[in-house]
Amino acid sequence: MINNAELNGTAVSPEVEVLPIHSQLTSGARSFRDKRHRAISLRSGQGMVHLQSGPVPFDAPCMIWLPADAGTAITMQAGTRGVILSLSEVALAQAIAVGPMADSLRSIVSLPFVSSRLEPDEADRFHRCLERLHAELEAEQPGHIDVVRHLTAVLSIDIWRLTRPLDQSAQSSDRMITTRFLQMVERNLRAQWPIARYAEELQISPERLSAILRKTTERAPLALIHARIIQEANVLLTNSGMQIADIAKNLGFSDPAYFSRFYKRMTGYSPNRQRRDPGPQSPDNTFASWP
Q: pTM of the full predicted structure?
């Protein structure tokens, strides 16, 4: 059995994680039962991906995409090497929030695929992208969050290019609605839309939206929105010289005092303290606060 210690990866946050797969002396298996998407780039080895529809063999170099609700496992033969990227629903939504390809990119979250025996250039491109993600997450240099987001978007486009025949068959689902909601939050965060407005845009009831989000993210709609506001506030407090009043206005708050009360209620400390001491209590260095 391959465990985290054997994979020797660095768990940087619950939202984005990259784990190298080192060559094993014996065969091993790994199950995926949490609410994360997986992109697996394998440079060498063979094995089997166990999908709900049945087992699918792979032969490296290959790229494997496993959506969060696939209920999957992967068996790897001895000598298998590669990288596993794990993405929360939120991290993927942030990466493909807007743009002319957003609808097509969203479809990749719905269907698993296994692309074996890639051309060397294709395999290298995927692997280099995942290795760069791992390096950015491990080093935590200034701006690494934006780099991770953009690299994830590039990876999504590369995966979409491999899966275009599947694109047309992707069906609307709870997970697709979740992704669309999170992307709308990204676009309209400062407008402070009410939940009813999001539900209207998604053409479902607020009650249905709440039920879907609780199922797919274990968070209520308002909790997701508030967490995103706090993450953005932390970035501005830590990395900009803006006054608290200007930060409040930037985030859609007409009353700076109300923003300060909201921030303290959500975090347990004031915006000024966050600015003075952006230590371990600050979630803005990872995706941990979103959601």
A: 0.56
Dihedral of CA 147/109/2/120: which sign? negative
Alpha-carbon distance of 34 to 21, in angstroms, equals: 19
Q: How far apart are CA 288 and CA 15, in angstroms?
A: 6
What are 28's strand-pairing partners? 76
Strand-pair partners of 29? 75
Domains assigned to the chain: 4-167 (2.60.120.280), 174-276 (1.10.10.60)
Q: What is the pLDDT along the chain (291 residues), one digit of tens a residue?
A: 233 333 333 333 458 999 888 877 777 888 887 888 899 999 999 898 888 767 888 888 989 988 887 667 899 998 899 999 999 888 888 888 766 677 777 766 677 888 877 888 888 888 899 999 999 999 988 888 889 989 998 888 888 887 765 444 444 578 778 888 988 888 888 888 899 999 988 888 999 999 999 988 889 999 999 999 998 899 899 888 889 999 999 999 999 999 999 999 999 989 988 888 776 444 433 333 333
Helices 174-188 and 195-202, interaxial angle, to 10°?
130
